[in-house]
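Example A, followed by Example B.
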Amino acid sequence: MNGTLMAAMWGALGGWLAWKARIPGGAVVGAMLATALFAFTRSERMVLPGWLEVALQIGVGIMIGLSADRSMLPLLKTVLPLALLGALGFLLFGFTLAAISVHFGWLDAATAMFGFTPGGISVMSVVAAEEGGRPAVVATMHFVRVVTLLLGAPLVVRWWLGLRGGG
């Protein structure tokens, strides 16, 4: 059987199982882990055909675009400046960590920058590949970040709310 088809089957099964198990971000995380496990069993590196990679990127873009609706428009006045401030802060912090990583020779510049800049696993990995970075390393960095935040954020929020007397 074709390696790409086998990878897709493993990814679909892993994504479905993680989604059914209600793991946060399960469909993407499960597909990524199952496909990576399959790829580890192969002696040669696997890559998707270019047309399929573009089609999947378009699908992700459509999915993200469809998450918007008109109820968001009034919020933009308040949220947009805060979101821009947060994005600039994340970029500055990410750039600092990337510069340290590049300085010590731990990572190349594109991989470091896209690995330390918060964003979606799939999107940041794709952009990293387009800019000459290593998408698997970027995906791994984001996976660790997302899992750490999913486990740690609820604890921090509970602690913070407790300090503030419940809200």
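Example B, a separate protein, is given below in the same form.
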Amino acid sequence: MINKKPIIFSDLDGTLLDHYSYKSTAADPTLQKLQRANIPVILNTSKTLAELEVIKVELKLNTPFIIENGAAVYIPKSTFATQPEDTKVEGNYWVKSFCLPRKHWLDLLNEHCGGFSQYYRGFSMLSVAELSQITGLDLTQAERAKERQYGEPIQWLGDEVTKKAFIVHLVELGANVVHGGRFIHVGDFCDKGQALIWLTEQYREHYSNCSVYTIALGDGENDTPMLDAADIAVQIRSPVHDFPPLYREYKTSQTQLYGPEGWAESIQQLLAEQILAT
């Protein structure tokens, strides 16, 4: 009988972290059980490398992680026996990137979107203090959030009609536009699902004696590609928006509880046998 190996891909804000407090408290005991059961938890988020370097330590994770809505996968060198193909070495990581650098998108916004400039503020325009006020992050956390490598998050200040026109204009210029929990993300045509698929293939090669399957958990529209790409999808209830529509209809569930409470309950139900004895 072939052994089945689950891999968990998880969004952070509003999913594993509470939307308001950014805390994982309700999910911490489940995270510890997963670690003891040797079940990888892959953070798949819009956050930056600088933010993830801190958060993964706080969550006691030493697994690969995906930054900036699928822009790049960071794999600790201890994860696999050999370096995956088409990755570069960056410090203690093997890195697979899918996107053009942030400067490309900043230049595009500055040179071709002047007619919309009064309707939005990008991270590059915001001070650390302003970003802290908007997000509820402390000043140190906000500074890390500004250290983006691939895309530009935007706070929209105008109406919905103008926003739609702005998005159409960006798409015509070759940009991809993704709605996150608080911001519009302008960048390349990459997403959390593409990154999930690529990294899962690396795990399948590593666990060649197992049948690898994926569980994805997320709450926002930017999580939809990840949820659609996974074998099992869990939509986490949000206190600020409805469940975004998914293309898939099978092996999909929606939590009654919010954020990390819903996250923990779902994982415990899906992986009861694997983590019950840990």
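On Example B: The CA atoms of residues 36 and 259 lie 23 Å apart.
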